[in-house]
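Researcher: We plan to redesign the surface later, but first we want a full-length starting point. Tokens attached.
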């Protein structure tokens, strides 16, 4: 994806128009001549255009529902943060392996919430409750928030709000390079801007509808020069022909782009490819031609929360992945912090 996301279809919940951001988005989309519909609730968004499930799925992924976040109780977000801050849900990307396909299988449209000030007030209360501890908020648990923020600026507002707090911190991760409007945000070093990166093979084959690797790395350089603490989520680490050299090239490209200053406070999160039985069913339905390897016989089973286990790489392959990627981090970014490998 080289151009910022523009929805094909936009729904407004009635209460959304009581907020300035709701009015602003309505006016913006009207000027762009995008079809606007009204719905009593996002749960009533049905009968999307399309002759079959595949077409309906694709149209849903380019549909935006503008509403309000009714529940201001935040979910926990371990291991990366204490809480998930709910600014949006859904994603316009078409990553074949994405876990959002199962959590949002029947509702793959994107939702943005316009009651941003209420969400930020709730965040302030969470910070207060945990004082004098630091409270970290993750803004990309259920969406790629950067992918829509050029339209909403909710993330920018949140970055600046957290920047003014003493004990709040913000984190999010993105596969998009549309960061220019965030470069002048008054973040005060309290937001860690993370990019999801991978070997070229994985991005080309399994991440349609997202920014190319070169664009992500270039955007990371801009973000670093804007003084944001930076991080990279290497995920999903996927074994393929030539994977060692594929991941090495990734680290070489990061090394060539990042200024020295950014390396003093740099984080890496490493996540091996995994899938669940329900995810496999949804992936094969939505992307029937995928090359993604989903053979349970080639994996080991690891019990997960809520009784749904995951299929991960066998121990010897996991050890190879660990050893290889740890060595690249040590070689290119010896001062970086490895937050976790899972």
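Model: Full-length starting sequence:
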């Amino acid at each position: 994806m080289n151009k910022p996301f523009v929805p094909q279809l936009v729904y407004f919940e009635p209460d959304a128009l009581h907020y300035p951001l709701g009015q602003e988005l309505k006016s913006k989309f009207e000027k762009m001549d995008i079809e606007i519909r009204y719905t009593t609730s996002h749960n009533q968004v049905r009968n999307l255009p399309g002759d079959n499930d595949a077409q309906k799925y694709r149209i849903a992924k380019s549909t935006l529902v503008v509403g309000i976040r009714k529940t201001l109780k935040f979910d926990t977000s371990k291991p990366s943060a204490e809480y998930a801050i709910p600014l949006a849900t859904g994603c316009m990307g078409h990553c074949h392996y994405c876990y959002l396909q199962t959590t949002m299988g029947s509702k793959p449209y994107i939702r943005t919430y316009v009651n941003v000030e209420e969400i930020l007030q709730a965040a302030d209360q969470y910070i207060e409750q945990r004082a004098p501890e630091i409270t970290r908020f993750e803004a990309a648990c259920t969406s790629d928030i950067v992918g829509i923020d050029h339209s909403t600026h909710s993330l920018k507002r949140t970055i600046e709000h957290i920047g003014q707090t003493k004990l709040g911190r913000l984190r999010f991760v993105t596969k998009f390079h549309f960061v220019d409007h965030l470069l002048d945000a008054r973040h005060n070093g309290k937001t860690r801007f993370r990019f999801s990166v991978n070997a070229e093979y994985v991005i080309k084959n399994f991440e349609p509808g997202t920014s190319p690797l070169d664009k992500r790395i270039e955007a990371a350089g801009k973000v670093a020069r804007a003084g944001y603490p930076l991080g990279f989520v290497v995920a999903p680490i996927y074994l393929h022909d030539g994977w060692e050299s594929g991941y090495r090239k990734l680290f070489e490209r990061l090394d060539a782009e990042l200024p020295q200053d950014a390396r003093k406070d740099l984080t890496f999160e490493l996540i091996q490819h995994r899938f669940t039985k329900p995810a496999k069913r949804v992936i094969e339905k939505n992307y029937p031609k995928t090359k993604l390897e989903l053979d349970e016989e080639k994996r080991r089973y690891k019990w997960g929360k809520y009784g749904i286990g995951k299929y991960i790489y066998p121990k010897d392959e996991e050890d190879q992945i660990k050893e290889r990627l740890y060595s690249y981090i040590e070689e290119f970014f010896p001062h970086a912090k490895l937050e976790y490998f899972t």
